[in-house]
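Per your request, structure below.
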């Protein structure tokens, strides 16, 4: 693969979408060939799976089913969008990827990393990010900043204890994979965070 793969991770309300959009503006201004995508989603099939995962109507979904649905969406996303773009030499910017499954299902749901990694082996085998930007803000501060919970999002509707486990899961992943993870503090405004991200990507040789 000739392209570079950047993922953004963080708790609900951390500002991933805003930072993805600011990075996209930066890439446009600097004539960088890229695609912007997200998980779960990114392809027609994966977007349909996303709607199943996030619908509050499916609140009784088992943790195992949830894990496999994320993995299924990721499989289609990788095969039909991410890997082709990387092979074309493009930079791929993705809002969430495999680390979300590890933080949410392995750590917060308690399924363990081995189970989640097995479900997503193809991702480890074929395509891992060159760098993962972890937007480091606690769930309490993130929800306060975004104005509360999105009642149409099944995952956001989980309680405070769950979201704190997600956050601690991300901290554990950042410690486990220091060569890939970059912790980006998010206590300033979004433009300060963006500047920190650009500096971090330059320091890693991505930009």
């Amino acid at each position: 693969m000739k392209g570079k793969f950047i993922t953004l991770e963080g708790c609900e309300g951390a500002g991933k979408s805003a930072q993805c959009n600011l990075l996209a503006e930066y890439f446009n201004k600097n004539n960088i060939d890229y695609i912007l995508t997200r998980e779960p989603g990114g392809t027609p099939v994966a977007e349909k799976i996303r709607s199943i995962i996030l619908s509050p109507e499916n609140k009784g979904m088992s943790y195992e089913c949830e894990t496999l649905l994320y993995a299924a969406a990721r499989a289609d996303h990788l095969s039909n969008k991410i890997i082709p773009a990387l092979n074309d030499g493009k930079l791929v910017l993705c809002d969430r990827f495999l680390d979300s499954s590890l933080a949410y299902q392995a750590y917060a749901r308690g399924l363990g990393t081995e189970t989640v990694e097995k479900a997503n082996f193809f991702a480890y085998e074929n395509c891992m990010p060159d760098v993962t930007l972890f937007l480091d803000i606690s769930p309490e501060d993130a929800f306060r900043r975004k104005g509360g919970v999105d009642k149409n999002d099944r995952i956001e509707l989980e309680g405070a204890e769950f979201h704190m486990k997600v956050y601690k899961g991300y901290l554990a992943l950042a410690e486990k994979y220091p060569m890939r993870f970059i912790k980006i503090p998010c206590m300033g405004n979004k433009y300060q965070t963006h500047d920190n991200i650009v500096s971090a990507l330059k320091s890693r040789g991505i930009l």
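The first strand starts at residue 5 and ends at 9.

Regards,
D.
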